[in-house]
Amino acid sequence: MGVAGEKFQLGTVGALSLSVVSSVSIVICNKALMSALGFIFATTLTSWHLLVTFCSLHVALCLKFFEHKPFDARTVMGFGVLNGISIGLLNLSLGFNSVGFYQMTKLAIIPCTVILETLFFRKKFSRYIQLSLSVLLFGVGVATVTDLQLNAMGSVLSLLAIVTTCIAQIMTNTIQKKFKVSSTQLLYQSCPYQALTLFVVGPFLDGFLTNKNVFAFDYTPQVLFFIVLSCLISVSVNFSTFLVIGKTSPVTYQVLGHLKTCLVLAFGYVLLHDPFSWRNILGILIAVIGMGLYSYFCTRETKPTEAAPQVTQVKEGESDPLISDSLSSAENGTAAADDEPLKVPMWSSKYARA
Fold first, then answer.
1. pLDDT of residue 102
2. Strands, DSSP E only, in the chain?
3. Which of these, 56, 20, 33, 51, lies nearest to 222 by C-alpha position?
4. 114, 302, 318, 328: which has the fewest Cβ within 10 Å?
5. pTM of this prediction?
């Protein structure tokens, strides 16, 4: 692999690492904010996250850290609104369903993404990739899914949440490639529409789900501190989400998301003393095996194309492994883990009940 290929792999590892660290950090912060301090307005908080992200990127633009590259306005607006809707639907899904059924909804995003990419983009997933994803999903299911209480409204909302999330994440990947824009440029242009969508519906949605008014909440200094901290971390979360999907694929991003779920369970047990059982441990171990298999098969399937540089670049962008060969170099100190987002990508109120 040439120098360009090595830089691509190092950038991918950095994006994956940033995504994991920032996402786990924001989950811990939000769990303290929502569980300990009682601020349970998830959708409204997400709108603040996106607003702070946009302001941060605007400052970066003014400092010329990246170049503004306008493209099709209707595409950007549709993409931003769709992302906002998917976040709201995921929160509604949790509100109308049990936590166990909500976790099943999250698990269904990977097979739905595979089906959509196969049908509409003619992307092929080998049997080995499908097997590794099945092992991963089974492990996460064992670790996280408890009760499965079904109801008609909750099922419809979950289905809509799955479809909109899959489409939004596929669009994140395809828009960056079609219009040749970076993750930063896409995030900067779509953030206002996402924030506006959630800023408008957030207070009503949170009020409906919690029977409380976000504007009547007692904002103590401690609550304000955690809100500001959460918003600052969200800049990294949102940026890393878009970067990971752009450099790899929506499926790989979902695999990474389940890795973060396992880490959240582990950190919750260690730091917050959450209940932990042998079932959780077994599920996490199975999920880690599935992630390892997914990474191994992705790496093995991309190697035969390395002789053709142009073909290799396309393959790496479509199915880059979760943990590539360059990760071992990074661990040995020869690679810098520099830098992504989200359903955001992005987190939802499920963390208050994890």
1. 77
2. none
3. 33
4. 328
5. 0.71
